[in-house]
Design a protein that fits this description.
32% of the residues lie in helices and 24% in strands. By secondary structure, the chain is an alpha/beta fold. It has a single domain (5-226), classed as Rossmann fold (3-Layer(aba) Sandwich). A 9-stranded mixed β-sheet has the order 4-1-5-6-13-12-11-8-9, sandwiched between helices. β12 (185-190) and β13 form a beta hairpin. The chain is globular. It starts with a strand and ends with a helix. The relative contact order is 0.17. The mean pLDDT is 95.
């Protein structure tokens, strides 16, 4: 059986495209064939890329500016490049038209939420009362009606954490799949879509069984997508 092609997006800094090798390693270990997606400006080119991929992994990255969700700047951010953001918007649109699996990690989850009309805390510590330190590991609770619960078979897991932005208002059709003790949303899923998952942690660098199960579920969904 051929391996599903997993398209992985990455950062652009001073004309250099890059993505951490751990994303590709995790996808390959779970049975996928990872390819790195350098941004294109052409809509036709983006459509070709979407057609070639069996699934899309939106990797971690920098901050999303508040202007992207129609709010004023209230704190300092390190903004994601305009080129990456626009490419991912065009690519996600094409991927969703084709109903192909999507997994967003950290920035990737935040991007998916904003793309669907949601908003973010620009800085959790400054804007959310009684917030945890989301730059270090902590426990999360998983909603027992979610796809994530079905995948992991657990209602509580410990995750790593390395972010200061977070989901405030959910985007259209998204549901809260997991949350931390301060009630910050830690995972999202899209209703009536085969596989559309965003997680705030980094399963690609974790070594526990839950991280492996999550990545494998994504690759299995890509296998189904690629067989159609």
């Amino acid at each position: 059986m051929s391996k599903p092609i997993i398209g992985i997006t990455g950062d652009i800094e001073k004309g250099v495209f890059s993505v951490k090798k751990t994303y590709a390693d995790a996808a390959e270990k779970a049975g996928g064939c990872p390819i790195l997606l350098s941004p294109l400006n052409s809509r036709a080119g983006v459509s070709v890329i979407a057609g070639k991929c069996d699934a899309l992994l939106i990797s971690g990255g920098k901050d999303i500016g508040p202007e992207k969700f129609k709010e004023k700047k209230t704190c300092d951010i390190d903004p994601v490049s305009h080129e990456r953001y626009q490419f991912e918007k065009r690519l996600l649109r094409e991927i969703m038209i084709m109903k192909k699996p999507v997994l967003g990690i950290c920035y990737g989850m935040q991007f998916m939420n904003v793309y669907l009309g949601g908003s973010l805390y620009c800085d959790i510590g400054q804007q959310k009362d009684d917030a945890l330190d989301h730059r270090s590991g902590h426990m999360i609770s998983i909603c027992n009606t979610s796809k994530l619960y079905y995948i992991l078979g657990s209602d509580k897991i410990r995750v790593n954490s390395s972010h200061h932005q977070g989901v405030k208002k959910l985007g259209r059709g998204l549901i809260n799949a997991a949350f931390s003790s301060d009630k910050l949303i830690e995972a999202v899923e899209l209703k009536n879509y085969p596989y559309f998952m965003g997680v705030q942690w980094h399963p690609e660098i974790m070594r526990d069984s839950h991280a492996g199960e999550l990545i494998r579920s994504f690759i299995e969904a890509a296998n189904v997508s690629g067989s159609h």
